[in-house]
Amino acid sequence: LHNDSFEAPVERGGRYFFRKRLAGQDLSLLCVRRGLNAAEEILIDPLPWSSDHSASVTFENVSRDGRFVFYGRRDGGQDEITPRVLDVEAKITLPDAFPKAQYFGLEPTPDNKGVYYSRVTPDGPRAFYHLMGSDGTNDKLIYGKHSREREDSYVAIVGGRHLSRLSGQLRFRIGKNGDLCSEREGERPGGGRGQ
User: Fold this and answer.
1) Alpha carbons 99 and 101: distance in angstroms, whole number
2) pLDDT over 70 at 194, yes or no
3) What is the pTM of this model?
4) Distance of alpha carbon 32 from alpha carbon 101, whole angstroms
5) 16-25, 60-69, 91-100, 164-173 — which is least confidently predicted?
6) Please, which residues bridge with residue 117 across strands?
7) DSSP notation for 15-38
8) Strand pairing class (40-44; 124-131)
9) SS (H, E, C) 127-180
10) pLDDT at residue 179, rounded to an integer
């Protein structure tokens, strides 16, 4: 490539997050500007991840206040990623663990205490709640327990960034092969409908 390329920025808490690939480079960087006219800072550079430059960074989401960035490591162009959480202030990746899988979305709660995510499992698509600071082994299944959806289906979380306006109620978009089939109500982390 002969020109730098940029993805559209996402603004959260007065910060602008985006991916950028420099002319002549194989991989995109995950960057932030701490204001519209502020200098660019590199948050994640995937170059050291693999000697052949086959590992890349995905930009999944940002917390409402701009404190946490949810990103993924993709190896060799696979559909699956390994999501991670970066503390933007400390510039450190947190120990929170998510399994390598194909994800349909990660949506942090407004209070940064948890994150909702949906991904493919051996039983089909499922949605979970992850408590921030945990290793992920006890993430709570919140949608799909009684689902008979096939592998080519998806479950996307709708409105995760707007949970306070929805009184904590989640909605899920269910589809097959990219076509929307239905939208259903979910539950709050403490219990409720949707499984």
Assistant:
1) 6
2) no
3) 0.83
4) 26
5) 164-173
6) 106, 128
7) EEEEEEE-TT-SS-EEEEESSTTS
8) unpaired
9) EEEEECCCCCCCCEEEECCCCCCCCCEEEEEECHHHCCCCCCCCEEEEEECCEE
10) 60
